[in-house]
Amino acid sequence: MANSTSANLKLTVQATGENSGTWGQITNTNLLILEQAIGGYDAVGLNATTGATLTFSNGVLSNGKNQVLRLTGTITSAVNVIIPNSIEKTYIVENATTGAFSVTFKTTSGTGATWSATNKGYKILYSDGTNIVDISTDLGDVGLGIVTSEGITATGNIIPGANDTYDLGSASNVWRNVYTGIVTSEGITATGNIVPGANDTYDLGASGNVWRNLYTGDLHLSNQAKDQGNIVDGTKGNWTLQEGKNDIFLINNISGEKFKINLSKIEGDL
Question: Quick one: DSSP state of residue 51?
Answer without folding.
Answer: B
